[in-house]
């Protein structure tokens, strides 16, 4: 399986090369030349697999440089019971009296967010790829985060030989718990820097660094190359496809659906990587009826799926679901390439429009094709808070703010469509990462005001009966190690300062 750029770069890359490179030289994103299929017989076989085994099987179809035995070794280590507990990603029926709604809990890993699923595995894939390609350079993982990717990447690459990891996050654009998780990170190779601005500023700055040929040559002279842990890296996105296959197989195993029966999948969405992984699972043969793309007040994706125009020229909102506070959804480029039939020239035209005018519009046929699979919607802050309380009241499940966005949009979709298809809600983060907003929703607006984050987390545990995750419980006692705050124009200079001694 070779990988090609969405923007038509003439070289083809192996999976290992794509993982190390991160982003194509022409600024495009790597996609597989073809999308492999999963047969009905394989789905039956997967019913007898644990998640790490199923994950290796799915990945073996995309990462053909690696044997399935190699991938099994990596997935067994990444999803060990020590890191995740007995069941890494439980699929839970929300209410015994409602067999339509299920929640896929993706936050039982080391940093309590769905990013752990991919970022506990990516370091294994990255180091193996370095060996397979014979590259003899230090790899610098350079990434921007809206909250969860940063800590998950830091945890995955911390003290990994031959690597440095630099994470940029927006000032004021992450929750208190997310920020504390990042700035207290240990490890001799970890660097966490706040950027004045929003996530899009940090992400744009990272993309500019990747696209600076002169800077790349300067790093090369010092034996260093850049790679990414964002979902722009195929090695980050591919592992996410596996848990959508797993959710379908698990429903079959629990006899909640019949063979070939379609499901819906609801995904809270910002950078579009998580829901794109679900689309790839659908293309592989998993019977998915609708992919419900749930946005918060930064509803650029919701508007796009409704009108066909992607327009980032709008007010930016800081919300209680900060990991979705994004106006430039990078992974949408991969979907557009696939839906446009691999027409790189068209993708370049759209992306140039986004870069120069802040917007682009797709044609009617492309929009119709997108709307066949995707439903978009958005929730405001009032709706998110009401949804957290509603889900708690009717199911006894406490959900975080991002997951609540998904439930909110689905509720309105279900009322409007009368679609009774079995539905999987992707739960992307532990409620403890956003404890003040969750407790305000349950106890009343302003409840958490004046209380310390430690107090609110303890009260959420008492209210919900959930055990406080170790990585959250220890936050208050950890030393703050990363204190740098810079402007977005200083990002490249900061990378040079860190890497070139």
Describe this structure as you would to a colleague.
The strands form four sheets. This protein has a six-stranded mixed beta sheet, sandwiched between helices. The protein has a five-stranded parallel beta sheet with strand order 8-5-6-7-15, with helices on both faces. Helices cover 47% and strands 16% of the residues. It folds into three domains: 3-79 and 115-234 and 482-499, Rossmann fold, CATH 3.40.50.1100; 89-112 and 241-431, 3-Layer(aba) Sandwich (Rossmann fold); 432-468. It is of the alpha/beta class.
Keywords:
single chain; alpha/beta; Rossmann fold; six-stranded mixed beta sheet; 23 helices; 15 strands
Shape, principal axes of CA atoms: globular
In the CATH hierarchy, the third-tier topology of the largest domain is known as Rossmann fold
Flag low-confidence runs.
none
> What does the main sheet amount to?
6 strands, mixed
Distance between the termini: 39 Å
Structural class: alpha/beta
Total discrete domains: 3
- Per CATH, the class of the largest domain reads Alpha Beta
Which architecture of the largest domain would the CATH scheme give at its second level? Answer: 3-Layer(aba) Sandwich
What spatial order of strands do you see in the largest sheet?
3-4-14-9-10-13
The tally of strands reads 15
Assess the beta-strand content as a share of residues.
15-25%
Please state the CA-atom Rg, rounded to the nearest Å. Answer: 21 Å
Give the overall average pLDDT.
Answer: 96
Total of DSSP H or I helical runs spanning 4+ residues = 23
